[in-house]
Design brief:
Radius of gyration: 22 Å
CATH architecture of the largest domain: 3-Layer(aba) Sandwich
Distance between the termini: 30 Å
Structural class: alpha/beta
Strand order of the largest sheet: 2-8-7-6-5-3-4
Oligomer: single chain
Strand content: 5-15%
Order of helices and strands: HEHHEHEHEHEHEEEHHEEHEEEH
Largest sheet: 7 strands, mixed
Helix content: 25-40%
Number of helices: 11
CATH topology of the largest domain: Aspartate Aminotransferase, domain 2
Length: 418
């Protein structure tokens, strides 16, 4: 147990990743614990975007398409894939949004398993994944199955195995649960799905950049994820998708756009998909978004995913220790696994008055967490920006706010917390 705030500061002085925080543009008056929702802005990204706007766009104009812009989706994809996703070159592209990429890969996977009528997922999964699955299933007359994941532990190999059958076409799950941070056993679940003849589509939005991912080694078929959380690419930054090399020529994604065309500038009458991962592109990519992701992801790569994971575990373990000693007796309950091998990069705590407590933290304490219905307070611990003293301050504030009853003076009308 850490005795006082000075001890937390000592941990920060010993942190091998401490210098990276100074490379972000963060208001020192704010304790930001929402980097698992929107990562902070890096100084390098801010500077790089200025160069792109003034030079590549302002000076070089359309010539920049032949000077690097056209290759950005695959170049940035390879950067993220090789260093953060365990994916060899030529299997990751950065384009569109997570929702659009999820739709493309889900439909492509379903078409590759004709005759099978079930999509197996998690009814507690992130909404955009569930909505896309439900929409595609409704339009095709498919069945949506549920693995029956535990709210705290998430989907397990046993729960998936019990739900699989010969009618399952696709299994789709999140690697890290967006509420509890439960970390799924990617390799084992993927192997079980393959034994049943199904393809697997993983959502890596809450694991990319904070948890080591081994897509190739785990035999994963398909994956998607966003770049604006732990990769710090900025609000609405383009997402990524992964397609295992052996599947690329067998899959045809449903949104045919000119950037996925084999001979893009031939402008031919018929669509012929590119031979590699480029066939999963659609329209003209967002150059500014890609340049932002390129700069911010490079910082994550420099820090190293293994060091990032080590600090992530240390931060979350520190938080849980403080939780047990400072606030567990104040009506709070822990909504995240205690075993560090089974949790991702954030910690969720529950309280009946979670919404009003969050309001006080943001408005009066300058501490920014994330509220999740109905009673969850998500504390995002982004290792390159979160300090141990930030964790101390957040738990100390939780204890003080509830002990003095400040939250009870607020109304219950829901407003945007962050």
């Amino acid at each position: 147990m850490i005795a006082d705030r000075a001890a937390a500061q000592a941990l920060d002085r010993a942190d091998p990743l401490a210098e990276f925080r100074d490379r972000f543009l963060i208001d020192p008056a704010v304790t930001y614990l929402d980097g698992n929702s929107l990562g902070a802005l890096t100084a390098a990204t801010s500077a790089r975007l200025g160069e792109v706007v003034r030079g590549e766009w302002g000076d070089r104009l359309i010539r920049s398409w032949n000077e690097g812009w056209t290759d950005l989706p695959t170049a940035v994809g390879d950067l993220i894939g090789a260093h953060l996703l365990g994916a060899a070159a030529g299997q990751v592209v950065v384009s569109d949004s997570t929702t659009v990429n999820f739709y493309k890969l889900l439909v492509a996977a379903l078409d590759a398993r004709p005759g099978r009528r079930t999509v197996l997922g998690d009814r507690r999964n992130f909404p955009t994944d569930r909505y896309v699955v439900d929409g595609v299933a409704e339009s095709r007359g498919l069945r949506v199955g549920d693995v029956g994941a535990d709210p705290l532990g998430g989907p397990t190999p046993d729960s998936v195995a019990a739900s699989l059958d010969s009618d399952t076409a696709v299994v789709t799950l999140s690697h890290v649960d967006y509420r509890s941070a439960a970390l799924a056993d990617m390799a084992s679940i993927t192997a079980l799905a393959h034994e049943a003849g199904a393809l697997v589509l993983w959502d890596l939005s809450h694991s990319a950049g904070v948890v080591p991912v081994e897509l190739d080694r785990s035999g994963v078929d398909l994956a998607v994820g966003c770049t604006y959380k732990y990769l710090n690419g900025g609000p609405g930054a383009p997402a990524f998708l992964y397609v295992r090399r052996e599947l690329q020529l067998d899959l045809r994604q449903p949104i045919w756009g000119w950037f996925g065309q084999r001979d893009q500038f031939e402008m031919g009458p018929a669509y012929r998909p590119a031979d590699g991962i480029e066939r999963f592109l659609t329209g003209t990519p967002s150059v500014l978004g890609l340049r932002a992701v390129e700069a911010s992801a490079a910082l994550v790569v420099e820090a190293g995913i293994e060091r990032i994971r080590a600090k992530s575990v240390a931060l979350s373990s520190f938080l849980i220790d403080l939780f047990d000693h400072r606030v567990a007796g104040l009506g709070f309950s822990l909504g995240t696994q205690r075993d560090p091998e089974r949790r991702g990069g954030h910690v969720t705590v529950h309280h009946p008055d979670a919404y009003r407590i969050c309001r006080v933290l943001v408005d009066q304490e300058q501490i920014i967490p994330d509220f999740r219905e109905p009673d969850g307070i998500r504390l995002g611990l982004s290792p390159l920006t979160t300090r141990f003293v930030d964790v101390w301050d957040a738990i100390d504030a939780l204890a003080r706010v509830v002990a003095d009853g400040r939250h009870t003076t607020l109304g219950t009308t829901r407003l945007a917390v962050t």
